[in-house]
Design brief:
Blueprint lengths: L2 E2 L20 H9 L4 E5 L4 H11 L4 E10 L4 E10 L3 E6 L4 E6 L3 H11 L10 E7 L5 E7 L7 H4 L2 H15 L4 E7 L5 H9 L6 E3 L2 H4 L5 H8 L5 E4 L3 H4 L8 H11 L1 H6 L2 E6 L16 E7 L4 H10 L12 H5 L25
Parallel strand pairs: 1-3, 7-10, 9-12, 9-13, 10-11, 11-12
Antiparallel strand pairs: 2-6, 3-4, 4-5, 5-6, 7-8
Length: 357
Amino acid sequence: MVQSNPKANRSSDFNMFSYHGEIQNQRMFCFFFREVPSIKKVHNIDLTKVVEWVENNKSELVIQKITDEYFGAKSLNLKSVIYLFSDRILLSVDSFVGDMEVLFHDNEAQAQKIIDSLKDFKKEKSNNNILIVTCEPSGLLDLRPVKISAPNTNLEKCYNDDLITRHESILEILKKDESGLMLFHGEPGTGKSTYLRYLTSQLNKKIIFLSPGLAGNLDNPHFARLLLDHQNAIIIVEDAEELLVARENEKNSGISMLLNLTDGLLGSCLNIQFICTFNIQLGKIDKALLRKGRLKALYEFTALSLEKTKALIHDLNKNIDVKEPMTIADIYGLGENFKYEKQPKAVGFKLASVEQN
């Protein structure tokens, strides 16, 4: 049994790899068995249990084992594994999303036996893994996992009632394998990031975090190739002003790609959903992003109502009397001796705020 890193010897085995260095299962099957495979897929499979089962039940049939690992917070972790069996079957499992693929040619009955043995090895729902897009020194894009935990947040207490009524519909839209765009905006401190953590913790889908800097390069061919290997994903871009703002005198190629991915030909093929947050006013956003059909949800995060502000302060055991609505960040930042006073408007020059059209 040979155990190897899938990114080694790229020059000799180039035809088995995608452009950004990930093994393509169909190419691998064709390379070893010289046949075009059929594929069966099972979702939400526990990689550790699959490896244990193969080692205990089919180790004598394994002609090659290929693993991909990554450095976690404290140790080296297994990202994916591919087994090639002597009976011309390829078994592949990716721990990031729990997808298992079984490739075969004219031996479907043997492949089905493997699926029947492994289909109950379901991945337990735990803290979400978000995949972060990174740019390697070579310029190629890669994905690295970061484990996140659901915030200890009570939606009914920490957000206004209009979000509570919309949360379930937002969740249902994101569970579908279809393209689309969601825009969340509002002043800093109103809870956008905390809500995203809460929202993603309830989803069993591939979630990719894209930094604002890389989001400006959506038209990068490397990014398109990466998406081909990660279809039906949710992509989150926080502080996405640079990507979303309309430019009258300069073409914004990032917006063009975003439009195509969320409601164009490419989007219908890949079923990519985007969630973008921003702090500026809605009137500065490119109007094409707001088109019905593309835009699946639009929500503005605001300060809590005065009633909810007082209730949350009371729940936090802070003996403070307030007379104005406050943001979540301001409420949690209150000190015991804090006296809330509305700040007077400053007199003088300041940067002009963005006016809504």
